[in-house]
């Protein structure tokens, strides 16, 4: 029962990933792509946590934490760049 | 005086974070954590001051709890509202970028306010200029700054004022 | 992954996944950058919160690390959304035509 529910959850997360990926590919503006990327990384973090649950390995949680940290920095840097050095 | 209290708070916070990450309180872990936390406080204390601005009085801690409760309730409401919009075929939105004024002066309190606004029903902070906040509002009911302030900001402001007063 | 709370945990995870899906849908359907950020950031924050909370029910021993991830995301997720919204406005992206007012553009018009 629990396994089945988790698989359904994984399927929903995968669908969300596909939708965010479509936004990432479509743009139209670079900002829209970064927004898509931002959402993609958060969905991936949830995905990693789901994998950790299914595999029963806590080490993946450290991966998720570091991934969250790096993707946040990535988005901030991309946004600073898009602002175009104003101020 | 205030500076050394801030440093102690920052040190405690960093050490706590380290211990939680490790999930152990072995003497070696505490030792390494204490040394690293002390080094961070000495070298980067100035730029990390945003971590230690929170007041530690009982009032402030109670306000923090109320703030969290209010915040979680608003977050759920925000998501239900957003789900309704996203799932309806006609996409019923009436967006506007409105201007609000905040009474908060502490930079961290302002940042938390902006963060909270972003996660509450239909609103997204776009720009923060001094006491003025520019907020994108998906289903705007007004474009008047005073009214918008009352509707969006007031709920959070009263807790944040106590927490960072 | 057994125990009395496993089923509750799995259902919470499922609810979180549903919100993530809604976030993805909103991100795809919304007409301009600002509304996309709105849909994306809110749904993913609650979605992740629920998935991590559900995971804590399934694996009680992991709760500290799950809580750290959660705290970090709760703070950074809205922050990156705001920075992106600001970047969008500074990059000159105008809101969708149905937007009723843009106080920020008005004020900048006054200044320059």
Automatic annotation (TrEMBL), chain A:
Location(s), subcellular: Cell membrane
Membrane topology: Multi-pass membrane protein
PANTHER family: NA(+)/H(+) ANTIPORTER SUBUNIT F1, NA(+)_H(+) ANTIPORTER SUBUNIT F
Magnesium among keywords: no
Protein name (record): Cation:proton antiporter
Entry annotated with the keyword tRNA processing: no
Ranges that cross the membrane: 6-25, 34-53, 59-82
Main location (coarse class): membrane
Keywords annotated in UniProt: Cell membrane, Membrane, Transmembrane, Transmembrane helix, Transport
InterPro entries, sorted: MrpF/PhaF-like
UniProt record similarity statement: Belongs to the CPA3 antiporters (TC 2.A.63) subunit F family.
Xref: Pfam families: MrpF_PhaF
Signal peptide boundaries: none
Coiled-coil region: none
From TrEMBL, chain B:
Transmembrane segments: none
UniProt xrefs under InterPro entries: Cation_antiport_E
The keyword Glycosyltransferase belongs to this UniProt entry's keyword annotation: no
Keywords: Cell membrane, Membrane, Transmembrane, Transmembrane helix
Subcellular localization(s) per the UniProt record: Cell membrane
Source organism, top-level taxon: Bacteria
Mode of membrane association: Multi-pass membrane protein
The family this protein is said to belong to: Belongs to the CPA3 antiporters (TC 2.A.63) subunit E family.
PANTHER family per record: NA(+)/H(+) ANTIPORTER SUBUNIT E1 (PTHR34584), NA(+)_H(+) ANTIPORTER SUBUNIT E1 (PTHR34584:SF1)
Protein name: Na+/H+ antiporter subunit E
Organism expressing this protein natively: Sinisalibacter aestuarii
From TrEMBL, chain C:
Bilayer-crossing regions: 6-28, 49-75
UniProt KW keywords: Membrane, Transmembrane, Transmembrane helix
InterPro entries: PhaG_MnhG_YufB
Coiled coil: none
Signal peptide (UniProt feature, chain positions): none
Protein name per Swiss-Prot or TrEMBL: Na+/H+ antiporter subunit G
């Amino acid at each position: 029962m629990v396994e089945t529910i988790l698989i359904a959850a994984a399927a929903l997360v995968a669908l969300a990933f596909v939708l965010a990926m479509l936004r990432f590919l479509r743009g139209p503006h670079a900002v829209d792509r970064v927004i898509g990327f931002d959402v993609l990384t958060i969905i991936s973090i949830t995905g990693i946590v789901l994998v950790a649950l299914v595999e029963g390995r806590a080490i993946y949680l450290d991966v998720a934490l570091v991934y969250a940290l790096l993707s946040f920095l990535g988005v901030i840097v991309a946004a600073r760049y898009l602002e175009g050095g104003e101020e | 005086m205030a500076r050394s209290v801030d440093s102690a708070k920052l040190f405690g916070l960093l050490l706590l974070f380290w211990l939680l990450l490790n999930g152990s309180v072995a003497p070696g872990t505490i030792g390494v954590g204490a040394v690293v936390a002390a080094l961070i406080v000495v070298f980067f204390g100035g730029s990390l001051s945003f971590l230690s601005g929170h007041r530690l009085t009982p009032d402030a801690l109670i306000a923090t709890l109320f703030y969290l409760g209010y915040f979680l309730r608003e977050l759920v409401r925000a998501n239900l509202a957003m789900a309704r919009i996203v799932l309806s075929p006609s996409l019923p939105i009436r967006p506007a970028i409105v201007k609000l004024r905040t009474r908060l002066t502490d930079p961290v309190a302002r940042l938390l306010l902006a963060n909270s606004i972003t996660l509450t029903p239909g609103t997204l902070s776009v720009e923060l200029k001094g006491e003025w906040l520019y907020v994108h509002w998906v289903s705007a009911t007004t474009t008047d700054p005073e009214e918008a302030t009352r509707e969006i900001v007031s709920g959070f402001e009263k807790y944040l004022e106590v927490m960072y007063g | 992954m057994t125990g009395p709370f496993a089923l509750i945990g799995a259902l919470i995870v499922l609810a979180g996944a549903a919100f993530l899906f809604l976030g993805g849908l909103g991100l795809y359907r919304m007409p301009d950058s600002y509304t996309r950020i709105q849909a994306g950031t809110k749904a993913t924050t609650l979605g992740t919160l629920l998935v991590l909370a559900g995971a804590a029910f399934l694996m009680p021993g992991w709760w500290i690390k799950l809580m750290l991830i959660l705290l970090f995301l709760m703070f950074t997720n809205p922050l990156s959304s705001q920075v992106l919204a600001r970047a969008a406005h500074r990059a000159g992206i105008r809101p969708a035509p149905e937007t009723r007012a843009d106080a920020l553009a008005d004020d900048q018009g006054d200044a320059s």
